[in-house]
Amino acid sequence: MKKNLLALIFLTTLALCLTACGNSEENLGNQAPGDPAKVEKALPEPAPKPLDLSGEWRQTNSNSDDTYQALYISENRIEVYWVMESDDTTALYWAGTYEAPTSERSAYSWDSSNDHDITSTALLASGDDTKTFTFEDGKLLYSVSAFGETMEVEATKQEWGYISLTTSSSESAGAMVGSGDLGAYHVEIKSAKLAEDYDGNPAIIVTYSWTNNSDETTSAMVSIGEKAFQDGVQLDTAFIMDSTAFDADSGMKEIRPGTTIDVQCAFLLTSETSTVEVELTEWISFSDDMVTMDFDPTSL
Known about the structure:
This protein is α+β, with helices and mostly antiparallel strands. The chain has 4 helices and 19 strands.
């Protein structure tokens, strides 16, 4: 009798356990414990992310190992630079709009509008109104026209030093009065005098010393940018034929590293009384460094 009672209790307990397990499986959609495939199906799939092109890009099809184009893409902007590692030089080529993809995709293309407010002051920048950039097979593709030739550029995502470039630029010395270093060169604005151009128009001749501290023989004409302003407007270059008053060839003379010479530049005056603001900069540079000096025409 006791054995029958124990057997009945055991069978009842076992039935309750099976019923509970069965209910649990129904609640989990008949999911078998420990089945990873069914566990994955129960989780929500992640939403696809839009194609992300932001960051640094570097040209991969350049004919030179140390001269190439490099890009930086941010949220709504793309910048393209000429990079010449041997001269430690970076020059802006393109600054324009970037339209980021809004969906996941393997290829993408957009037309970038040129920011002429920035590129118009960069000597090696493109003057095109728009430029088409295309992404496919992991490469960024676009065309570059310079010096009468056009080439197709291919770039891949890799660091080239954009962050350090912008940091050094923001920490640059800025305007230096009278003298200072412009990249690998040292200049000192020494004097100014009044003159006339070949048509008899009033002009000013500025003399500055230029020291070549680079590793190459070069000239001021391809190393230093010369500007002058009156009443906030840039002055035109003056053509002076009097060789006794103006040395027109001084800027074209090449000098060896470590050598200093005097260079002259001339500008047409728009006023014989307004202050002339002279600015010297490195000809190809991302830096804001400049050497300045003001001259009063009435005192010359």
